[in-house]
Specification:
Length: about 350
């Protein structure tokens, strides 16, 4: 056995305990040692959360696990929206739409963002640009609604679409919005948000099935009958997504904790974004996207310009650094996720 490998000073036993709580299979022996099972569990977790699957528990993986930093490596709380604050945004937005928020649905919604989409807030999390699971597709009509409005934009990332020959990579976008509350409001006003509120699923499989039948996600298994959850491929896609939701669900402690900020003002600092290359975006993906009229309207002229912008496209002026030192930022995935799964045909 070797000691658990970290990019900072953390307790390996704490990591093993957290992996077990999130459904590590097989369950790990909490011994603080780094063996093959611990490595495999870390790699599986990293893959499910859009992180580099290297088996090293560095800051990004620790942030996704929800483990705070050590005294020598404290988390930068100014650069992320906390889970209790994000849940407060959901509660407020749900009430504004005439529904009474219930903890089960809230827990599942967070499970979707954190588990299925790898959208965990924090400077080292997938909001920093490591997500390659979910597709937040931005269409010209949606983008035009936000044109010129300060704080709205899009954040590029790598996604894949299932084909008979295997998953094919492509360039997708997450929305950027000016605050966590605005992000959640917009998210709930889309068809998936309305359906989740009206149907009120109380388990991960039903929740995933609603989204799959509506075309929100495609899964990793090519389905000759798209959106049909009754086929073997459809069942596998639903179960995969449901399992990821279950791993990311809000705990009782998270649901009970008070928000530590105002969700109408808080968002995430764009300085946490990883580079385009670290997000797995390649020149060929950029070139393919440029051939689509959808992406041609969003993308800069060259890949070099795209790299310099860190894959961010603003529809209106970017929100500047506020008095508290927090720049307004990404709202789609950890500050708040806008996941648009409509396939655009390229």
């Amino acid at each position: 056995m070797k000691p658990m490998r970290f990019g900072a000073d953390f307790d390996a036993a704490v990591v093993q305990t957290r992996l077990n709580a999130l459904g590590a299979s097989p369950s790990l022996v909490v011994d603080g040692l780094f063996g093959p099972k611990s490595t495999a569990a870390v790699v599986a977790f990293q893959r499910s959360h859009g992180l580099v699957p290297d088996g090293i528990v560095g800051p990004a993986t620790l942030a996704a696990l929800g483990i705070a930093g050590s005294a020598s490596h404290p988390p930068d709380s100014s650069k992320h929206v906390s889970i209790p604050t994000l849940l407060a945004a959901f509660r407020q937005a749900i009430q504004e739409r005439g529904y009474a928020p219930n903890d089960t649905l809230l827990s599942l919604m967070l499970g979707q963002l954190r588990g299925a989409e790898g959208a965990y807030p924090g400077a080292g999390g997938t909001l920093g640009g490591t997500n390659n699971i979910g597709a937040a597709q931005v269409t010209p009509s949606l983008a035009s609604l936000k044109k010129g409005i300060q704080g709205w934009g899009a954040f590029a990332h790598k996604d894949t679409t299932p084909t008979p020959s295997g998953p094919q990579p492509y360039l997708g976008f997450y929305w950027i919005a000016p605050s966590a509350l605005e992000a959640v409001r917009y998210w709930l006003d889309q068809w998936w948000g309305r359906n989740l509120l009206t149907q009120n699923p109380q388990d991960a499989t039903t929740y995933a099935s609603i989204l799959y039948q509506g075309g929100y996600f495609e899964g990793n298994h090519y389905n000759p009958s798209p959106r049909d959850p009754s086929t073997p491929e459809g069942q596998q896609n639903v179960q995969d997504y449901a399992g990821a939701i279950a791993r990311g669900r809000a705990s009782a402690a998270e649901l009970a904790a008070p928000p530590d900020g105002d969700p109408s003002k808080l968002t995430v600092d764009p300085s946490v974004f990883k580079s385009v290359q670290e997000r797995g975006i390649t020149p060929s993906m950029f070139a393919n996207a440029k051939t689509s009229s959808v992406w041609a309207s969003l993308l800069p002229a060259s890949f070099d310009d795209f790299v310099r912008a860190k894959g961010v496209v603003w529809y209106g002026p970017a929100v500047g650094v506020a008095a508290g030192g927090t720049a307004a930022l990404l709202l789609l995935a950890g500050g708040v996720l806008f996941l648009f799964r409509k396939r655009l045909g390229f």
